[in-house]
Amino acid sequence: MRKAFPPEDLARDSRFARVDRMDQIADPRAASGQGGGRPNQRLTPDRADSADAARSLMHGIFVGEIQALEGAGRTCWDFETGTDGAPFALKLDMARQCWDEARHCEISVKLSEHMGTEIGEFGESAFLYQAACNPDPVLRLTGVNRALEGLAIDVFNTMKEFGSISADPVLEFCEDWMLADEVTHVKMGSDWLRKLTEDDPERRANALEFQRVVDKLFSFGGFRGEDDESPVILARRFRELAGFGTDEIDEIAAISAEARDEAKAHRASLAAQG
Amino acid sequence: MADPHAPRPAFAPWDRRELPGSFTVEESARRAGNYKWIEMRLFEALGGWIATVPELDVKMRLGTHCYHHAWHAELWHKRLPELREMNPERLAVPPNEQMERFVEALTEPEAADLTIEKLVGVYRVLIPHKIAAYTYHLNNTSTITDAPTIRSLKFILHDEMDDWRDGEMILQSLIETPDDVRRAAERQVELETILVAAGGICGPGTLGGPTSDEQQPHQEVSA
Q: CATH assignment of B25-198?
Protein backbone atom coordinates (compact mmCIF):
# COMPACT_ATOMS: atom_id res chain seq x y z
CA MET A 1 0.00 0.00 0.00
CA ARG A 2 1.34 3.41 -1.00
CA LYS A 3 2.29 6.04 1.56
CA ALA A 4 0.23 8.75 -0.15
CA PHE A 5 -3.22 8.11 -1.56
CA PRO A 6 -4.57 10.62 -4.12
CA PRO A 7 -8.15 11.97 -3.93
CA GLU A 8 -9.04 10.62 -7.37
CA ASP A 9 -8.42 7.07 -6.13
CA LEU A 10 -10.79 7.20 -3.13
CA ALA A 11 -12.75 3.94 -3.32
CA ARG A 12 -16.54 4.17 -3.56
CA ASP A 13 -19.36 1.80 -4.45
CA SER A 14 -21.55 2.35 -7.53
CA ARG A 15 -24.08 4.59 -5.77
CA PHE A 16 -21.68 7.49 -5.31
CA ALA A 17 -21.36 10.18 -7.98
CA ARG A 18 -18.07 12.11 -8.06
CA VAL A 19 -18.46 15.73 -9.16
CA ASP A 20 -16.17 18.73 -9.00
CA ARG A 21 -16.69 21.41 -6.38
CA MET A 22 -18.19 23.90 -8.84
CA ASP A 23 -20.85 21.39 -9.95
CA GLN A 24 -21.64 20.62 -6.34
CA ILE A 25 -22.16 24.29 -5.52
CA ALA A 26 -24.16 24.86 -8.70
CA ASP A 27 -26.67 22.15 -7.76
CA PRO A 28 -29.92 24.15 -7.34
CA ARG A 29 -31.00 21.81 -4.53
CA ALA A 30 -27.93 22.65 -2.43
CA ALA A 31 -28.07 24.63 0.80
CA SER A 32 -25.93 27.25 -0.90
CA GLY A 33 -28.18 27.22 -3.98
CA GLN A 34 -30.83 29.76 -4.88
CA GLY A 35 -32.35 29.87 -1.40
CA GLY A 36 -35.82 29.84 -2.84
CA GLY A 37 -34.98 33.00 -4.75
CA ARG A 38 -34.26 35.13 -1.68
CA PRO A 39 -31.09 36.85 -0.56
CA ASN A 40 -31.41 35.32 2.92
CA GLN A 41 -29.76 31.91 2.56
CA ARG A 42 -29.79 30.92 6.23
CA LEU A 43 -31.05 27.39 6.61
CA THR A 44 -34.44 27.78 8.26
CA PRO A 45 -37.71 25.87 7.78
CA ASP A 46 -39.37 28.96 6.25
CA ARG A 47 -37.05 28.79 3.24
CA ALA A 48 -39.15 27.58 0.32
CA ASP A 49 -36.47 25.03 -0.55
CA SER A 50 -35.58 24.12 3.04
CA ALA A 51 -36.32 20.39 2.65
CA ASP A 52 -34.02 19.99 -0.33
CA ALA A 53 -31.40 22.30 1.17
CA ALA A 54 -31.34 20.37 4.46
CA ARG A 55 -31.23 17.01 2.68
CA SER A 56 -28.42 18.23 0.45
CA LEU A 57 -26.49 19.48 3.47
CA MET A 58 -27.04 16.15 5.24
CA HIS A 59 -25.68 14.27 2.24
CA GLY A 60 -22.73 16.66 2.19
CA ILE A 61 -22.13 15.91 5.87
CA PHE A 62 -22.24 12.19 5.13
CA VAL A 63 -19.66 12.27 2.34
CA GLY A 64 -17.60 14.75 4.36
CA GLU A 65 -17.53 12.27 7.24
CA ILE A 66 -16.37 9.51 4.91
CA GLN A 67 -13.53 11.72 3.71
CA ALA A 68 -12.65 12.79 7.25
CA LEU A 69 -12.51 9.09 8.19
CA GLU A 70 -10.28 8.37 5.24
CA GLY A 71 -8.04 11.34 6.01
CA ALA A 72 -7.54 10.37 9.66
CA GLY A 73 -6.85 6.79 8.58
CA ARG A 74 -4.25 7.90 6.09
CA THR A 75 -2.48 9.90 8.81
CA CYS A 76 -2.19 6.67 10.79
CA TRP A 77 -0.54 4.99 7.81
CA ASP A 78 1.35 7.64 5.85
CA PHE A 79 3.76 8.75 8.57
CA GLU A 80 6.25 6.56 10.37
CA THR A 81 5.89 6.99 14.11
CA GLY A 82 8.49 9.34 15.52
CA THR A 83 10.71 9.69 12.48
CA ASP A 84 8.30 11.63 10.25
CA GLY A 85 7.37 14.13 12.91
CA ALA A 86 4.29 12.14 13.88
CA PRO A 87 4.61 11.14 17.55
CA PHE A 88 2.99 7.96 18.86
CA ALA A 89 0.38 9.98 20.79
CA LEU A 90 -0.60 11.92 17.66
CA LYS A 91 -1.22 8.69 15.79
CA LEU A 92 -3.31 7.38 18.69
CA ASP A 93 -5.41 10.55 18.42
CA MET A 94 -5.85 9.96 14.70
CA ALA A 95 -6.96 6.37 15.34
CA ARG A 96 -9.46 7.66 17.87
CA GLN A 97 -10.66 10.12 15.26
CA CYS A 98 -11.14 7.22 12.84
CA TRP A 99 -13.57 5.64 15.28
CA ASP A 100 -15.39 8.94 15.80
CA GLU A 101 -15.67 9.60 12.06
CA ALA A 102 -16.85 6.03 11.45
CA ARG A 103 -19.64 6.66 14.00
CA HIS A 104 -20.44 9.95 12.28
CA CYS A 105 -20.78 8.08 8.97
CA GLU A 106 -23.17 5.66 10.65
CA ILE A 107 -25.17 8.52 12.20
CA SER A 108 -25.25 10.40 8.88
CA VAL A 109 -26.51 7.36 6.97
CA LYS A 110 -29.31 6.93 9.50
CA LEU A 111 -30.13 10.65 9.51
CA SER A 112 -30.15 10.74 5.71
CA GLU A 113 -32.72 7.94 5.70
CA HIS A 114 -34.64 9.80 8.39
CA MET A 115 -34.72 12.88 6.14
CA GLY A 116 -35.68 10.92 3.03
CA THR A 117 -32.36 10.98 1.21
CA GLU A 118 -30.58 8.15 -0.57
CA ILE A 119 -26.85 7.65 -0.84
CA GLY A 120 -25.70 9.14 -4.15
CA GLU A 121 -28.72 11.42 -4.54
CA PHE A 122 -26.31 14.37 -4.45
CA GLY A 123 -22.82 14.60 -5.89
CA GLU A 124 -19.60 14.17 -3.91
CA SER A 125 -16.50 16.25 -4.51
CA ALA A 126 -13.20 15.20 -2.95
CA PHE A 127 -12.15 18.67 -1.84
CA LEU A 128 -12.37 17.85 1.87
CA TYR A 129 -10.02 14.89 1.53
CA GLN A 130 -7.57 17.04 -0.42
CA ALA A 131 -6.77 18.88 2.82
CA ALA A 132 -5.68 15.51 4.22
CA CYS A 133 -3.07 14.95 1.53
CA ASN A 134 -0.42 17.38 2.75
CA PRO A 135 2.93 15.58 3.18
CA ASP A 136 3.78 17.50 6.38
CA PRO A 137 1.87 16.02 9.34
CA VAL A 138 1.61 19.43 11.02
CA LEU A 139 0.11 21.05 7.94
CA ARG A 140 -2.15 18.08 7.38
CA LEU A 141 -3.42 18.19 10.94
CA THR A 142 -3.95 21.94 10.74
CA GLY A 143 -5.84 21.62 7.46
CA VAL A 144 -7.96 18.71 8.62
CA ASN A 145 -8.45 19.24 12.35
CA ARG A 146 -8.64 23.01 12.49
CA ALA A 147 -10.09 23.91 9.07
CA LEU A 148 -12.14 20.87 8.01
CA GLU A 149 -13.27 19.87 11.50
CA GLY A 150 -13.80 23.55 12.27
CA LEU A 151 -16.19 23.73 9.33
CA ALA A 152 -17.89 20.61 10.74
CA ILE A 153 -18.48 22.51 14.01
CA ASP A 154 -20.21 25.29 12.05
CA VAL A 155 -22.25 22.84 9.95
CA PHE A 156 -23.36 20.67 12.89
CA ASN A 157 -24.32 23.70 14.93
CA THR A 158 -26.38 24.99 12.01
CA MET A 159 -28.06 21.60 11.54
CA LYS A 160 -28.69 21.29 15.26
CA GLU A 161 -30.45 24.67 15.24
CA PHE A 162 -32.38 23.64 12.13
CA GLY A 163 -33.49 20.48 13.97
CA SER A 164 -34.55 22.55 16.95
CA ILE A 165 -36.64 25.14 15.08
CA SER A 166 -38.14 22.58 12.72
CA ALA A 167 -39.16 20.41 15.73
CA ASP A 168 -37.04 17.44 14.70
CA PRO A 169 -35.64 16.07 17.99
CA VAL A 170 -33.80 13.19 16.26
CA LEU A 171 -31.80 15.58 14.08
CA GLU A 172 -31.10 17.95 16.99
CA PHE A 173 -30.01 15.09 19.27
CA CYS A 174 -27.63 13.50 16.76
CA GLU A 175 -26.07 16.77 15.60
CA ASP A 176 -25.36 17.74 19.20
CA TRP A 177 -23.49 14.47 19.79
CA MET A 178 -21.45 14.89 16.63
CA LEU A 179 -20.76 18.49 17.57
CA ALA A 180 -19.21 17.30 20.84
CA ASP A 181 -16.84 15.02 18.92
CA GLU A 182 -15.88 17.76 16.47
CA VAL A 183 -14.97 20.16 19.26
CA THR A 184 -12.66 17.41 20.55
CA HIS A 185 -11.08 16.96 17.10
CA VAL A 186 -10.51 20.67 16.59
CA LYS A 187 -8.97 20.91 20.05
CA MET A 188 -6.67 18.00 19.13
CA GLY A 189 -5.56 19.96 16.08
CA SER A 190 -5.00 23.15 18.07
CA ASP A 191 -3.04 21.31 20.77
CA TRP A 192 -0.82 19.40 18.30
CA LEU A 193 -0.17 22.52 16.23
CA ARG A 194 1.10 24.34 19.33
CA LYS A 195 3.10 21.37 20.59
CA LEU A 196 4.80 20.36 17.35
CA THR A 197 5.72 23.89 16.31
CA GLU A 198 6.72 25.14 19.75
CA ASP A 199 10.30 25.71 18.63
CA ASP A 200 9.64 26.21 14.94
CA PRO A 201 7.82 29.49 14.26
CA GLU A 202 8.29 29.17 10.49
CA ARG A 203 6.55 25.80 10.42
CA ARG A 204 3.75 27.19 12.56
CA ALA A 205 3.34 30.14 10.19
CA ASN A 206 3.24 27.76 7.20
CA ALA A 207 0.63 25.61 8.93
CA LEU A 208 -1.57 28.63 9.74
CA GLU A 209 -1.23 29.88 6.17
CA PHE A 210 -2.30 26.44 4.91
CA GLN A 211 -5.28 26.64 7.25
CA ARG A 212 -6.23 30.03 5.80
CA VAL A 213 -6.17 28.59 2.28
CA VAL A 214 -8.33 25.65 3.33
CA ASP A 215 -10.70 27.89 5.33
CA LYS A 216 -11.19 30.06 2.27
CA LEU A 217 -11.95 27.02 0.14
CA PHE A 218 -14.48 25.88 2.73
CA SER A 219 -16.09 29.33 2.72
CA PHE A 220 -16.46 29.20 -1.05
CA GLY A 221 -19.30 31.35 -2.36
CA GLY A 222 -20.18 32.50 1.14
CA PHE A 223 -21.27 29.00 2.18
CA ARG A 224 -20.14 29.71 5.74
CA GLY A 225 -20.31 33.14 7.36
CA GLU A 226 -21.81 35.26 10.11
CA ASP A 227 -24.79 36.87 8.41
CA ASP A 228 -28.08 35.66 6.98
CA GLU A 229 -26.63 35.43 3.49
CA SER A 230 -24.68 32.30 4.49
CA PRO A 231 -26.49 28.99 4.93
CA VAL A 232 -23.97 27.85 7.55
CA ILE A 233 -23.23 30.12 10.49
CA LEU A 234 -19.79 30.44 12.09
CA ALA A 235 -20.16 28.86 15.57
CA ARG A 236 -18.07 31.19 17.69
CA ARG A 237 -18.83 29.64 21.10
CA PHE A 238 -17.94 26.09 20.09
CA ARG A 239 -14.82 27.23 18.27
CA GLU A 240 -13.66 28.94 21.47
CA LEU A 241 -14.17 25.64 23.33
CA ALA A 242 -11.99 23.98 20.70
CA GLY A 243 -9.06 26.28 21.31
CA PHE A 244 -9.60 29.06 18.76
CA GLY A 245 -8.76 32.57 19.93
CA THR A 246 -11.15 35.47 19.21
CA ASP A 247 -8.69 36.92 16.70
CA GLU A 248 -8.55 33.58 14.88
CA ILE A 249 -12.35 33.39 14.68
CA ASP A 250 -12.48 37.00 13.47
CA GLU A 251 -10.04 36.07 10.74
CA ILE A 252 -12.21 33.16 9.57
CA ALA A 253 -15.20 35.49 9.55
CA ALA A 254 -13.23 37.93 7.39
CA ILE A 255 -12.12 35.13 5.04
CA SER A 256 -15.74 34.01 4.74
CA ALA A 257 -16.95 37.53 3.96
CA GLU A 258 -14.22 37.89 1.36
CA ALA A 259 -15.21 34.60 -0.26
CA ARG A 260 -18.85 35.68 -0.35
CA ASP A 261 -17.99 39.04 -1.94
CA GLU A 262 -15.82 37.33 -4.54
CA ALA A 263 -18.66 34.97 -5.40
CA LYS A 264 -21.09 37.88 -5.68
CA ALA A 265 -18.71 39.72 -8.02
CA HIS A 266 -18.28 36.55 -10.07
CA ARG A 267 -22.05 36.10 -10.40
CA ALA A 268 -22.48 39.77 -11.35
CA SER A 269 -19.78 39.43 -13.97
CA LEU A 270 -21.48 36.35 -15.44
CA ALA A 271 -24.83 38.16 -15.47
CA ALA A 272 -23.29 41.16 -17.25
CA GLN A 273 -21.93 38.86 -19.93
CA GLY A 274 -25.46 37.59 -20.47
CA MET B 1 -24.10 -9.61 62.14
CA ALA B 2 -20.79 -11.49 62.31
CA ASP B 3 -18.11 -10.31 64.72
CA PRO B 4 -16.09 -7.67 62.77
CA HIS B 5 -12.97 -8.55 64.78
CA ALA B 6 -13.06 -12.28 64.04
CA PRO B 7 -10.04 -13.31 61.93
CA ARG B 8 -10.78 -14.05 58.27
CA PRO B 9 -8.50 -15.70 55.71
CA ALA B 10 -6.63 -13.30 53.38
CA PHE B 11 -8.00 -15.20 50.42
CA ALA B 12 -11.70 -15.98 50.49
CA PRO B 13 -12.66 -19.59 49.77
CA TRP B 14 -13.77 -18.65 46.26
CA ASP B 15 -10.57 -16.74 45.46
CA ARG B 16 -8.34 -19.37 43.81
CA ARG B 17 -5.62 -17.06 42.52
CA GLU B 18 -2.09 -18.45 42.86
CA LEU B 19 1.44 -17.04 42.92
CA PRO B 20 3.12 -19.30 40.34
CA GLY B 21 3.47 -18.02 36.80
CA SER B 22 5.45 -18.85 33.69
CA PHE B 23 6.90 -15.43 32.97
CA THR B 24 9.65 -13.38 34.58
CA VAL B 25 9.36 -9.60 34.58
CA GLU B 26 11.79 -9.50 31.64
CA GLU B 27 9.87 -12.08 29.60
CA SER B 28 6.60 -10.30 30.28
CA ALA B 29 8.17 -7.03 29.08
CA ARG B 30 9.55 -8.68 25.94
CA ARG B 31 6.13 -10.00 25.04
CA ALA B 32 4.46 -6.66 25.82
CA GLY B 33 6.94 -4.99 23.46
CA ASN B 34 6.10 -7.45 20.66
CA TYR B 35 2.40 -6.88 21.32
CA LYS B 36 2.81 -3.11 21.10
CA TRP B 37 4.70 -3.45 17.82
CA ILE B 38 2.10 -5.63 16.12
CA GLU B 39 -0.84 -3.58 17.45
CA MET B 40 0.78 -0.47 15.97
CA ARG B 41 1.35 -2.08 12.60
CA LEU B 42 -2.23 -3.31 12.58
CA PHE B 43 -3.93 0.00 13.45
CA GLU B 44 -1.78 1.82 10.90
CA ALA B 45 -2.71 -0.64 8.16
CA LEU B 46 -6.42 -0.58 8.99
CA GLY B 47 -6.30 3.22 8.90
CA GLY B 48 -4.54 3.24 5.55
CA TRP B 49 -6.96 0.77 4.00
CA ILE B 50 -10.08 2.82 4.83
CA ALA B 51 -9.63 4.98 1.73
CA THR B 52 -8.94 1.95 -0.48
CA VAL B 53 -12.04 -0.19 0.16
CA PRO B 54 -15.23 0.69 -1.75
CA GLU B 55 -17.59 -1.28 0.50
CA LEU B 56 -19.20 1.26 2.85
CA ASP B 57 -19.78 -1.12 5.75
CA VAL B 58 -16.18 -2.36 5.57
CA LYS B 59 -14.87 1.20 5.45
CA MET B 60 -16.72 2.07 8.66
CA ARG B 61 -15.72 -1.17 10.45
CA LEU B 62 -12.06 -0.60 9.63
CA GLY B 63 -12.31 2.85 11.20
CA THR B 64 -13.76 1.39 14.39
CA HIS B 65 -11.27 -1.48 14.59
CA CYS B 66 -8.36 0.87 13.84
CA TYR B 67 -9.00 2.58 17.16
CA HIS B 68 -9.34 -0.69 19.08
CA HIS B 69 -5.82 -1.74 18.08
CA ALA B 70 -4.39 1.73 18.71
CA TRP B 71 -5.81 1.55 22.22
CA HIS B 72 -4.24 -1.88 22.71
CA ALA B 73 -0.89 -0.43 21.61
CA GLU B 74 -1.34 2.33 24.16
CA LEU B 75 -2.10 -0.17 26.94
CA TRP B 76 1.16 -2.04 26.19
CA HIS B 77 3.06 1.23 25.87
CA LYS B 78 1.92 2.16 29.38
CA ARG B 79 2.61 -1.29 30.80
CA LEU B 80 6.23 -1.43 29.64
CA PRO B 81 7.66 1.09 32.16
CA GLU B 82 5.83 -0.81 34.90
CA LEU B 83 7.86 -3.83 33.83
CA ARG B 84 11.13 -1.91 34.33
CA GLU B 85 11.46 -0.92 30.66
CA MET B 86 11.81 2.83 30.91
CA ASN B 87 12.27 3.27 27.17
CA PRO B 88 9.13 1.63 25.75
CA GLU B 89 10.43 2.06 22.18
CA ARG B 90 13.37 -0.27 22.86
CA LEU B 91 11.16 -3.34 23.20
CA ALA B 92 8.44 -2.24 20.73
CA VAL B 93 10.01 -4.35 18.02
CA PRO B 94 9.11 -7.42 15.97
CA PRO B 95 10.41 -10.70 17.41
CA ASN B 96 12.32 -11.51 14.21
CA GLU B 97 12.72 -10.70 10.52
CA GLN B 98 10.00 -13.16 9.46
CA MET B 99 7.49 -11.18 11.49
CA GLU B 100 8.52 -8.02 9.65
CA ARG B 101 8.12 -9.93 6.40
CA PHE B 102 4.66 -11.00 7.50
CA VAL B 103 3.58 -7.39 8.09
CA GLU B 104 5.01 -6.34 4.72
CA ALA B 105 2.98 -9.07 3.01
CA LEU B 106 -0.11 -8.30 5.10
CA THR B 107 -0.12 -4.62 4.16
CA GLU B 108 0.80 -5.03 0.50
CA PRO B 109 -2.71 -5.08 -1.10
CA GLU B 110 -4.09 -1.67 -2.05
CA ALA B 111 -6.39 -2.00 -5.07
CA ALA B 112 -10.12 -1.52 -4.54
CA ASP B 113 -10.91 -5.06 -5.70
CA LEU B 114 -8.69 -6.70 -3.06
CA THR B 115 -10.92 -6.34 0.00
CA ILE B 116 -11.01 -10.11 0.50
CA GLU B 117 -7.20 -10.29 0.52
CA LYS B 118 -6.98 -7.39 2.98
CA LEU B 119 -9.54 -8.84 5.37
CA VAL B 120 -8.29 -12.44 5.23
CA GLY B 121 -4.86 -11.27 6.35
CA VAL B 122 -6.31 -9.48 9.35
CA TYR B 123 -9.29 -11.60 10.38
CA ARG B 124 -8.27 -15.12 9.35
CA VAL B 125 -4.55 -14.97 10.07
CA LEU B 126 -3.32 -12.16 12.32
CA ILE B 127 -6.19 -11.73 14.76
CA PRO B 128 -6.56 -15.49 15.41
CA HIS B 129 -2.82 -15.57 16.17
CA LYS B 130 -3.16 -12.59 18.47
CA ILE B 131 -6.06 -14.20 20.29
CA ALA B 132 -3.96 -17.34 20.76
CA ALA B 133 -0.91 -15.45 22.02
CA TYR B 134 -2.91 -13.25 24.38
CA THR B 135 -4.84 -16.25 25.73
CA TYR B 136 -1.60 -18.17 26.31
CA HIS B 137 -0.21 -15.20 28.22
CA LEU B 138 -3.43 -14.81 30.22
CA ASN B 139 -3.51 -18.49 31.18
CA ASN B 140 0.16 -18.76 32.13
CA THR B 141 1.11 -15.62 33.96
CA SER B 142 0.91 -15.24 37.72
CA THR B 143 -2.61 -14.28 38.68
CA ILE B 144 -1.33 -12.28 41.64
CA THR B 145 2.00 -10.72 40.69
CA ASP B 146 1.05 -9.90 37.09
CA ALA B 147 -2.55 -8.79 37.69
CA PRO B 148 -2.13 -5.51 35.74
CA THR B 149 -1.13 -7.42 32.59
CA ILE B 150 -4.08 -9.75 33.08
CA ARG B 151 -6.45 -6.81 33.29
CA SER B 152 -5.13 -5.41 30.01
CA LEU B 153 -5.23 -8.84 28.36
CA LYS B 154 -8.87 -9.30 29.31
CA PHE B 155 -9.90 -5.92 27.87
CA ILE B 156 -7.90 -6.58 24.73
CA LEU B 157 -9.21 -10.12 24.25
CA HIS B 158 -12.75 -8.82 24.55
CA ASP B 159 -12.08 -6.44 21.63
CA GLU B 160 -10.20 -9.06 19.63
CA MET B 161 -13.02 -11.59 19.86
CA ASP B 162 -15.61 -8.99 18.84
CA ASP B 163 -13.46 -7.71 15.98
CA TRP B 164 -12.62 -11.21 14.78
CA ARG B 165 -16.35 -12.03 14.67
CA ASP B 166 -17.12 -8.77 12.80
CA GLY B 167 -14.37 -9.43 10.29
CA GLU B 168 -15.27 -13.06 9.76
CA MET B 169 -18.92 -12.19 9.15
CA ILE B 170 -17.96 -9.49 6.66
CA LEU B 171 -15.69 -11.96 4.89
CA GLN B 172 -18.42 -14.60 4.72
CA SER B 173 -20.72 -11.98 3.15
CA LEU B 174 -18.07 -11.04 0.57
CA ILE B 175 -17.07 -14.59 -0.40
CA GLU B 176 -19.78 -15.59 -2.85
CA THR B 177 -18.21 -17.73 -5.58
CA PRO B 178 -15.77 -20.66 -5.82
CA ASP B 179 -13.21 -18.18 -7.15
CA ASP B 180 -13.67 -16.00 -4.05
CA VAL B 181 -13.19 -19.09 -1.87
CA ARG B 182 -9.96 -19.91 -3.70
CA ARG B 183 -8.70 -16.32 -3.37
CA ALA B 184 -9.38 -16.29 0.36
CA ALA B 185 -7.77 -19.69 0.89
CA GLU B 186 -4.68 -18.84 -1.13
CA ARG B 187 -4.20 -15.61 0.73
CA GLN B 188 -4.57 -17.39 4.06
CA VAL B 189 -1.98 -20.00 3.07
CA GLU B 190 0.44 -17.32 1.88
CA LEU B 191 0.30 -15.34 5.11
CA GLU B 192 -0.07 -18.23 7.53
CA THR B 193 3.10 -19.77 6.09
CA ILE B 194 5.09 -16.63 6.89
CA LEU B 195 3.61 -16.29 10.35
CA VAL B 196 4.36 -19.92 11.18
CA ALA B 197 7.95 -19.32 10.07
CA ALA B 198 8.03 -16.34 12.46
CA GLY B 199 6.90 -18.61 15.29
CA GLY B 200 3.84 -16.48 16.10
CA ILE B 201 3.51 -12.83 17.06
CA CYS B 202 6.13 -13.16 19.81
CA GLY B 203 8.39 -15.45 17.78
CA PRO B 204 9.26 -19.03 18.80
CA GLY B 205 7.68 -19.85 22.14
CA THR B 206 4.64 -17.64 21.54
CA LEU B 207 2.44 -20.52 22.68
CA GLY B 208 5.00 -22.19 24.95
CA GLY B 209 8.13 -24.17 24.25
CA PRO B 210 11.56 -22.58 23.89
CA THR B 211 11.84 -18.95 22.88
CA SER B 212 14.47 -17.93 20.34
CA ASP B 213 16.61 -16.56 23.19
CA GLU B 214 16.44 -19.51 25.53
CA GLN B 215 15.87 -22.56 23.36
CA GLN B 216 14.55 -24.02 26.60
CA PRO B 217 11.01 -24.33 27.89
CA HIS B 218 10.01 -21.78 30.50
CA GLN B 219 10.42 -23.06 34.03
CA GLU B 220 7.38 -22.37 36.09
CA VAL B 221 8.22 -20.46 39.24
CA SER B 222 6.65 -22.24 42.19
CA ALA B 223 5.62 -20.62 45.40
A: 1.20.1260.10
